[in-house]
């Protein structure tokens, strides 16, 4: 799950100023967690509170997305999600935006089987993104994470995605010159998965994703969530990522952090303690 947060922060400053190269400082003082990170943590909290079960998870997801999301009202939510977040009786709005995929990494860790992973991903997604393409993007991402963390090869992951979700008939080098900003699952999730599949390490996966351009923070968050499960996160990047998260919250959301606990990382720690993570030195 921290892999998604690191990817989000690395891409945060390039969303509207794309950097189509893998050569850039992974973090600088301007990098910050966006709605991708905040909602990733909210989903993790919902799964923790619901004991990892899909049944009843929709209600917990609404509760924690609203509770945590309202603490950070200016972190980049889409217009319809923002309205949903403050609604007293929120309803899904048939979205197939890539927000469905950027927040589901916890599902790939909490599920014990592919079917459990799909059920969890669907439950946390349909509260907002109940369009079939939204559910598809969330499921594909969560399943890729599950397969990556359970020892499957990149070839097996590619085959599974192509057989069940998307055709990956392109390379990153082919699409990089012309890929444009796109907020749909259909035009973000395949590119994020391909960035992971072509990578050589966790850091290289993040750099590859950012270099694609487009919706850089979300694309890198999705890629990072899969890369963490496959490679693990190097200890130095884990430390840097946690420091950057705290610093980014304090600098980017001073009003929020003045009113609320600025450190949401204990939720990440609690989730990892219960459902696991992977460090780069893990066997």
Overview of the molecule:
It is a single chain. Helix content is 62%, strand content 0%. The protein contains 16 helices and no strands. The protein has helices at residues 2-11, 35-49, 57-71, 79-86, 99-102, 105-110, 114-125, 132-149, 154-164, 172-175, 189-198, 202-212, 216-231, 235-252, 254-259, 265-275. α1 (2-11) runs antiparallel to α13 and α12 runs antiparallel to α13 (216-231). The longest helix is centred in the middle third of the chain and has 18 residues, at 132-149. It is globular.
Weakly predicted, low-confidence segments: none
What would you call the structural class? mainly alpha
CATH architecture label = Orthogonal Bundle
Count of helical regions: 16
Could you tell me the CATH topology label: ADP-ribosylglycohydrolase fold
* CATH H-level superfamily title: ADP-ribosylation/Crystallin J1
Give the CA-based shape.
globular
Strand content: under 5%
Query: How can the largest sheet be summarized?
Result: none
Record the SSE blueprint:
Blueprint: H1 2-11, H2 35-49, H3 57-71, H4 79-86, H5 99-102, H6 105-110, H7 114-125, H8 132-149, H9 154-164, H10 172-175, H11 189-198, H12 202-212, H13 216-231, H14 235-252, H15 254-259, H16 265-275
Helix pairs in contact: 1-12, 1-13, 1-14, 2-3, 2-16, 3-7, 7-8, 8-9, 8-13, 11-12, 11-13, 12-13
């Amino acid at each position: 799950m921290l892999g998604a947060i690191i990817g989000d922060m690395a891409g945060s400053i390039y969303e509207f100023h794309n950097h189509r190269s893998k050569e850039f400082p992974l973090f600088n003082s301007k990098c910050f967690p966006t709605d991708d990170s905040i909602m990733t943590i909210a989903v993790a909290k919902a799964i923790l509170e619901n004991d990892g079960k899909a049944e009843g998870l929709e209600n917990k997801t609404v509760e924690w997305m609203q509770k945590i999301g309202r603490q950070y009202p200016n972190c980049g939510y889409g217009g319809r999600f923002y309205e949903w977040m403050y609604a007293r009786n929120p309803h899904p709005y048939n979205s197939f935006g890539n927000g469905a995929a950027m927040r589901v990494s916890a599902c790939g860790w909490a599920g014990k089987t592919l079917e459990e992973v799909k059920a969890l991903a669907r439950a946390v997604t349909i509260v907002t993104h109940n369009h079939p393409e939204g559910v598809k993007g969330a499921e594909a991402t969560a399943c890729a994470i599950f397969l990556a963390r359970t020892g499957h090869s990149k070839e097996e992951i590619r085959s599974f995605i192509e057989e069940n979700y998307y055709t990956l008939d392109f390379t990153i080098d082919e699409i990089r010159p012309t890929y444009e900003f796109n907020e749909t699952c259909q035009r973000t999730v395949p590119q994020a998965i391909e960035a992971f599949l072509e990578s050589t390490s966790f850091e290289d996966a993040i750099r590859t994703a950012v270099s694609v351009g487009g919706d850089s923070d979300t694309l890198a968050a999705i890629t990072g969530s899969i890369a963490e499960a496959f490679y693990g996160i190097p200890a130095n990047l884990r430390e840097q990522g946690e420091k950057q998260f705290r610093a980014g919250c304090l600098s980017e959301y001073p009003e929020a952090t003045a009113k609320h606990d600025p450190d949401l990382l204990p939720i990440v720690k609690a989730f990892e303690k219960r459902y696991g993570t992977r460090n780069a030195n893990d066997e």
